[in-house]
């Protein structure tokens, strides 16, 4: 499986057969100005919640790729109003696709859509594909709800926000890894805005002291999972 980072909380997971794009926010992000959005391919676009820094490029990329959009029903209703018909609404539960399984899980955050309408509940996802289990927390604070993941999965990687202010910071993220027993973390949702800027060396050192791995790919970089 491959992971490509596009900045903020946007990334692409490539399984053996499908490309899964998460929370597309690329063109408004000055840190991602070198990314050629028109070259992005996706079979599915998964949306954690409706805030602009997670859906800014959703409609354009859904039309460009004809990907199936997976999201909470309120976000799906907004997507359909933008002329997107290829959708799969979910709520907190699990669905088996022909390529793998998606579980929508709780995130502690807020959610609204670009037009000001209600965005439903924020969420995260656990992806099971190609023999791996990947948790993407979405935008969330630290919550004991995460502990249930240890009963359900043996997570290979957790993709977690680390920027603080709106979400968990590095210290909270380290606590979260103990809740769901995962030692390999990919950091997202940091450095895009001044209020979520972090010292990446300090973050890496904190993880190393706990004998855990924090991966911080450059925007546009692809790594193997």
TrEMBL record:
InterPro entries: Metallo-B-lactamas, RibonucZ/Hydroxyglut_hydro, UPF0173, UPF0173_UPF0282_UlaG_hydrolase. One of its GO terms (molecular function) is hydrolase activity. SUPFAM superfamilies: Metallo-hydrolase/oxidoreductase. Keywords: Hydrolase. The keyword Hydrolase applies. Belongs to the UPF0173 family. This is UPF0173 metal-dependent hydrolase SAMN04488023_12120. The lineage of its organism: Bacteria, Pseudomonadati, Bacteroidota, Sphingobacteriia, Sphingobacteriales.
């Amino acid at each position: 499986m491959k992971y490509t980072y596009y900045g903020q909380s946007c990334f692409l997971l490539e399984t053996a057969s499908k490309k899964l794009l998460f929370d597309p926010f690329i063109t408004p992000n000055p840190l991602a100005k070198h990314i050629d959005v028109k070259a992005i391919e996706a079979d599915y676009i998964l949306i954690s919640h409706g805030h602009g820094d997670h859906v800014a490029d959703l409609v354009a990329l859904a039309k460009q790729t004809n990907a199936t959009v997976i999201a909470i029903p309120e976000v799906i209703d907004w997507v359909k109003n933008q002329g997107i018909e290829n959708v799969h609404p979910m709520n907190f539960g699990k669905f088996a696709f022909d390529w793998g399984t998606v579980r929508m899980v709780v995130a502690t955050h807020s959610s609204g859509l670009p037009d000001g309408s209600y965005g439903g509940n924020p969420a995260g996802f656990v992806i099971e594909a190609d023999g791996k289990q990947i948790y993407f927390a979405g935008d969330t604070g630290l919550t004991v709800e995460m502990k249930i993941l240890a009963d359900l999965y043996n997570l290979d990687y957790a993709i977690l926000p680390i920027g603080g202010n709106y979400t968990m910071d590095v210290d909270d993220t380290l606590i979260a890894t103990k809740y769901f027993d995962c030692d390999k973390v990919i950091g997202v949702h940091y450095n895009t805005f001044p209020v979520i800027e972090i010292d990446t060396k300090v973050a890496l050192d904190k993880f190393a002291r706990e004998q855990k791995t924090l991966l911080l790919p450059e925007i546009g970089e692809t790594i193997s999972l």
